[in-house]
Amino acid sequence: MLDYGLTEDQRTIRDLAREIAEKEIRPVAAEYDRTGEFPWPIVRVMAQCDLFRVFIDEKYGGMDGGTPTMNMVVVTEELSRACAGIALSFAGTALGAMPIILSGSEQQKQKYLPGIAEGKRLAAFAITEPQAGSDAGGIRTTALRDGDHYVLNGTKQWITNGGEADIYTVIALTNPTKGPRGASALVVEKGTPGFSFGKKEDKMGIRASATCELIFQDCRVPVENLIGREGTGFITTMHTFDASRPGVGAQALGIAQGALELALEYACNRRQFGSPVSSFQGLQFMMADMAMKIEAARALVYATARYIDTQPTERPTLYSAMSKCFASDVAMEVTTNAVQIFGGYGYMRDYPIEKYMRDAKITQIYEGTNQIQRDEIARVLIGEYRSGKPRTARTGA
User: pLDDT tens-digit profile of 181-236?
Assistant: First the structure.
């Protein structure tokens, strides 16, 4: 791997995550994929090793060292090399905590972040609904003020860590007459009366990750659980995605890297026509292309993470969308080619490679489909051109 300028602390975090991935996750990944159970034993190992602290400020029990995004990216990549589904217990918690980190009050940070940092309380982010996927502005869940509480009614769908997390950041309409401008972000704790869980999804990939429906029926949430001000829910959401999409890129990157490593091992040991299949030029070219695209994706994801950490006053929307989109497209291409290298064995569940292909697909879909990412990229580029301040490849700004 190229030297991406990781600090000593980040290299230590990376090595620790890699050790957990190899010793704790890889031996059980296939079983969790088969059963779809949530990997609580591994979550407890992550917590004992302080992994959940890396994206949270030291003030709240974390250890981010001023580089929370890079820390999150490094850990997510390493865990995803062994199992992207299990890695989501970590990455999904980072996503769920992000609105509190970015826009929460001091009281909210003091109340919720220490438990997340300790790994005692997982988090989840809830915006998607049956009628509001890519069109997040179509949400219908309401949170209407009633004295010192908001009364929450509606359903959220496909929520990562759903049913397992204790802390949920929920986007709901506090003023339905204003549409998206009437959306607000609220913290809802598991066990709140009127808050229950519906169907747990039976997914194609990332099966060790809990994906569940959230149901709110006259759920009363204290006013102090409002994140920011009323009507700022979509601003909070966009800022959250700006910070979290490189994490999806890192997940895709880990999937692709893990698939390449398996393909290389297989190609060097599988013999056909009296020679290892790695000696055939057709497969050599495939693996060379896989490696080049993975490294290009890593460069973009890492550069974006560093940009977010070092340029806090700049909106990273363009680069966040690019890193998520490019890395996930690479992951899908690499895993498809890895299955091809395995040949017929690659199609069998006796071999681990087909799981990587199934897991890769979701990275092109959640946190905004790659079609939405391309729309975001084009919107920023066109807007900058029309404003007379186009960014250039030469300056990067």
Answer: 999 999 999 999 999 999 999 999 999 999 999 999 999 999 999 999 999 999 99
234-386 to CATH, choices 3.10.20.310, 3.40.630.30, 3.40.1700.10, 1.20.140.10: 1.20.140.10
What would the pLDDT profile of 289-317 be if each residue is shown by its tens digit?
999 999 999 999 999 999 999 998 889 99
Cβ proximity of 169 and 126 under 8 Å: yes
The predicted model scores a pTM of 0.95
CB atoms within 10 A of CB 349: 11
Distance of CA 214 to CAs 169, 194, 290, Å? 12, 11, 39
Domain 8-122 has CATH 3.30.200.20: no
Q: What's the mean pLDDT in 258-272?
A: 94
Residue 257: exposure state from Cβ atoms within 10 A (0-12, 13-18, ≥19): buried
CATH number of 124-231: 2.40.110.10
Q: Is the pLDDT of residue 395 over 50?
A: no
Residue 76 amino acid letter: T
215 with 173: CB under 8 angstroms?
no
Indicate the domain borders of the chain: 8-122, 124-231, 234-386
User: What are the residue numbers of the active site?
Assistant: 367
Whole-number pLDDT of residue 281: 93
